[in-house]
Amino acid sequence: MSAYLDIIPKIIPGAVVTIEILLAASCLAFFVAFIAGLGRVSRFSIIRRITTVYVELFRGTSLLVQLFWIFFALPAFGLKLSPFLAGVVALGLNYGAYASEVVRGAILAIPYGQTEASIALNMTRFQRMRLVILPQALRIMLPGFGNISIELLKGTSLVSLITLTDLTYKGLIIQNTNISYTFPVFIVLLIIYFIIALPLILAVRKLEKNASKGVAKA
After folding, report:
1. Full-model pTM
2. Considering the domain boundaries, does residue 135 fall inside one?
3. Within a domain: residue 121?
4. DSSP codes joined into one string, the chain
């Protein structure tokens, strides 16, 4: 027990950094997801092609390689990012690419009759998307966004490889300092990661429940 009491105070600052990265990267990821997701269903082919290249590039390459490229390679082109910003950008762009498919799929899942009805009401394309399609699509997106958030949290552990003192980095420092702490350190890491993930899980369930109110059952 004394080992755990010694480890926890030392590892908490790393948990704070992990949460900060999670929040910042999530905001970027979901912003990018909506932009890219809407771009994938745009009527303009050039926009569809650009967003397709982005999505396939970030989904088809390793997050670790992207992280290293942004942190170590970009300075060669005159763009040097701090470890925190590099981690946020890499995570946000990577998971934003996956989340964009959730956005695209949700929009395409809305029956075309909804679009036809809004056209009959003389709505503009923007009004159709904002007032008819997106409100229904958001309900479909929630489970996917919840899973993306959990995966993003797990992905934050990679930022320890670019010298960012996150939860995993702190744990490894403690473990390397005292090899007898190996088992307690990883037990504490597991518990803290789960504690951080739990509010995300519960929040998504709550949002899904609220969003389904008033929706007719098939």
Report:
1. 0.88
2. yes
3. yes
4. -HHHHHHHHHHHHHHHHHHHHHHHHHHHHHHHHHHHHHHHT-S-HHHHHHHHHHHHHHHSS-HHHHHHIIIIIGGGGT----HHHHHHHHHHHHHHHHHHHHHHHHHHHS-HHHHHHHHHTT--HHHIIIIIIHHHHHHHHHHHHHHHHHHHHHHGGGGGGGT---HHHHHHHHHHH-GGGHHHHHHHHHHHHHHHHHHHHHHHHHHHHHHTTTPPP-
